[in-house]
């Protein structure tokens, strides 16, 4: 049987980085196995539906290079598939459960359920439905249903344990006494996640469910539904949580958690995929930089770890910087220019400045600030940098550099290394003592972008002016 995975988000807000990792793992596994990856929108909870979130989701998946497929037997309809358009399928399924005695109508009011919850909480008991309507006969419930609102609940076993195998966590056992009689169909006629999820996974021929570990306690309900319908259940893998540095669950209180936020802040889509792929999956290699093709080839569902993965922003910044450094020049310049004011984009020398920054960036948002060294007067050197300028060797370097400039009509990055080689030969100064004084004199800082590009951007006249000013001091 061909592998079929799915990503089934609810359109209730931004795309959490954890949700994107779930989509990525499902995509990698399906592609690695030569199978299908389906996108399904679980939008049956109309009260929580947020306008625009589906569009944001589709945009994010497209930007990060995750494509989805048509479901089995639906080659003319690639999706995404919306549960709100499949209500008749769920109603037929829940009617089957009612007729077979696997589900029942519950007529309890919201007020009674709230009082029950408060009473159980006061007794330090886990809130759960007490089964008041569980023993109603089908005839009694059908008669009451003519005049009284109701929901439909799953009748779960009350004794023993549910045992199952998880591809990440191994053999798991959960006592049925911990499982509530889950609502399957709400009073508005819309199914809950639990019913729609199982029905859709069956009819869409999903073979592997890869999702967050927060769904682990729901597995018994889902397996019981598969049993009641007489269907084979897919294999399951529950992914570890993404954690803050203090090992709490990753939340917006401690930083950005939406994939859109990282795209807006200048992170490269390939770097985000690479970083999130390694948040919970260990390929067992020293290499940390993977293209999408390499991720697909290397992905092994059996190497997903159980322990929560700390979302290390410094590591993401480092990885993003690697992708920027290795980006081809045309793409880099196109991306970089989008972070500039329109006036700066028209600067005839701006590409030189941007190329100088390429090796110094972690994210594209740093561009406007880092461009400051190319314009106006460089910042005053700090005490350590000033000491470098005061060295006798620095004065020799400056003198020989100015001598080189006398013989040139323009200063270009392509010629810069040859110029500095001649400066080294005539001054006898080399290494750090050769390059550092010039960097400090031109930029006011001891570290920064490639010096050749800085010199070209400044041009011969401005470079000579800055060097001469320091030589006079």
Describe the structure.
With 473 residues, the chain is mainly alpha-helical. Among the domains are: 163 residues, HUPs (Rossmann fold, 3-Layer(aba) Sandwich); 144 residues, Arc Repressor Mutant, subunit A (Orthogonal Bundle). It contains 20 helices and twelve strands. It has a three-stranded parallel sheet with strand order 1-2-3. A three-stranded antiparallel sheet has the order 4-5-8. It has a two-stranded antiparallel ribbon with strand order 6-7. Strand 6 and strand 7 form a beta hairpin. Helix 9 packs across helix 11. The longest helix is centred in the last third of the chain and has 22 residues. It is elongated. It starts with a strand and ends with a helix. The model has no long low-confidence stretch (mean pLDDT 91).
Q: Could you list some keywords that capture this structure?
A:
three-stranded parallel sheet; Rossmann fold; Arc Repressor Mutant, subunit A; elongated; mainly alpha; 473 residues; three-stranded antiparallel sheet; 12 strands
